[in-house]
Amino acid sequence: MKRLFPSLVAVIFLSTGCFLFGGGGGSQPAPHDEETTSVKAPGEISELAKLIDAGNDYLIAGDLRNATREYERAQEIAPDDPFVNNNLGLVYMEKELFSLAVSYFERAIEVLPYYYKAHNNLGNAYHELGYRDLAEEAYEEALKVKPDYTLAHWNLALLLEKTGDTLDAIRHWQRYISLSAGEGDIAFARSRIAALRDGTSTAPEEVEAISEEEAEHFVE
User: Fold this and answer.
1) 139 is in which domain, residue-wise?
2) Tell me, what DSSP letter sits at residue 27?
3) Is 207 helix (H, G, I), strand (E, B) or coil?
4) Domain total for the chain?
5) Torsion of CA 102, 143, 180, 220, to 10 degrees
6) Which of 3, 14, 23, 188 has a Cα at 20 to 30 A from 90?
7) pLDDT of residue 157
8) Which is nearest to 85 in space by CA: 121, 45, 54, 50?
9) Highest mean pLDDT among 1-15, 25-39, 138-152
10) What is the CATH number of the domain that holds 18?
């Protein structure tokens, strides 16, 4: 599978202000863009941060077993924390346990409905499972929350090519280009538009949908 951006293990989501699939490009978030929403005693917050830090370190090292263990321990402290659930979903995406990843992304969204990155990641999981209608719905939900979210435009354009929705695919590729400000793979997006317009396009099956965690070098 062709990845156009760094792999997940290079850019992990640190939900406690320590942490990036879900498309490609877009502005880089600040290192501590996301904070945990759990309200805990100071000692518990410290323990939660340590567990997530450890999980991130293991994930960067490619040690999925220990990353899972640390994130699950974090979830024991904060079972409803949307960012912890999103992290677990990302681990299971790496393990190619996509149905399990879906359950964690859905939980993150249930707790934090405007968590557009989790919507995007959910779309990726559905895409991997072959549920294209559900994937399209998830990407569109991400864009409802954040219309300028380049990653969702990228992922949705790829998906729409595969479903034969040429005009909408072109529209999302164009939107991706206009929003990327030179930071994404604009050349690839332009090549897709050209292929779609001249009728020579074949769905780019070798190109993966990606999450923000894969597209960015910075942690959130």
Assistant:
1) 8-215
2) P
3) strand
4) 1
5) -50
6) 188
7) 96
8) 121
9) 138-152
10) 1.25.40.10
